[in-house]
From TrEMBL, chains A, B:
Domain of life: Bacteria
Listed name of the protein: Winged helix-turn-helix transcriptional regulator
Span of domain HTH hxlR-type: 9-102
SUPFAM superfamilies: Winged helix' DNA-binding domain
Organism name: Aquimarina addita
Family matches, as PROSITE patterns: HTH_HXLR
DNA sequence: CGGCATCCGCGAGGATACTG
DNA sequence: CAGTATCCTCGCGGATGCCG
């Protein structure tokens, strides 16, 4: 077995999906609170900046872990939820959660 | 559910264990190659510096994911392996690996 | 309200040399 | 051989302000 296998392996891809200081907290929160608005999410997660929150949400959307729902009122309303893929990742993370709590 | 739950939850602890640019590669490698010497490990993982390798190995030893075996010859020989805890984490990571490869 | 655009600080990680 | 000791780089994330 060679090291190069790690590059491009599924584990690396999965870790890239959840990488970033705030990405796991965001996923963790969405796992327990579906369909939440941007500013509510921003208030619920203390000390994160809007910039970083927007960045990470875009990233999570790109890798298809969350989905975005937009209501064209004024002001606009944007809701975020875990996708099906995101939920199945959440199940794996909850196994990790159990592992870490002992 | 409140955000503060994330701080101190098992998931955060588990992610801290595997945090760091090189920690997952090291675990991944040890998962497939038991009982390997420091310099061999260093050669097998391209471009990592000895400093960082030593740092991460110490960290992994502190959180009890790997174990160290030292032979007092000259020059000294040091072998690293996954601990039992490390192997069970490895099993979880292989689930993540499957997740990431689709 | 839900973001971008800028600027900036800090600390993980890299390069290199040295040691028991 | 198996690490330390120093110094340095670079990019993630923080702070603030603006816009449709």
């Amino acid at each position: 077995m060679k090291y190069e296998d790690f590059e491009g392996c599924g584990l690396k891809k999965a870790l890239d999906m959840i990488s970033g200081k705030w990405t796991p907290p965001i996923l963790y929160f969405l796992f327990n609170n579906q369909d939440i608005r941007f500013n509510d999410l921003w208030r619920e997660i203390p000390r994160i900046s809007k910039k970083v929150l927007a960045e990470r949400l875009k990233h999570l959307e790109n890798v298809d872990l969350i989905s975005k729902r937009k209501v064209d009122s004024f002001p606009v309303e944007v809701y975020y939820s875990l996708s099906e893929k995101g939920k199945s990742l959440g199940d794996i993370l909850s196994v990790l959660d159990k592992f870490g709590s002992k």
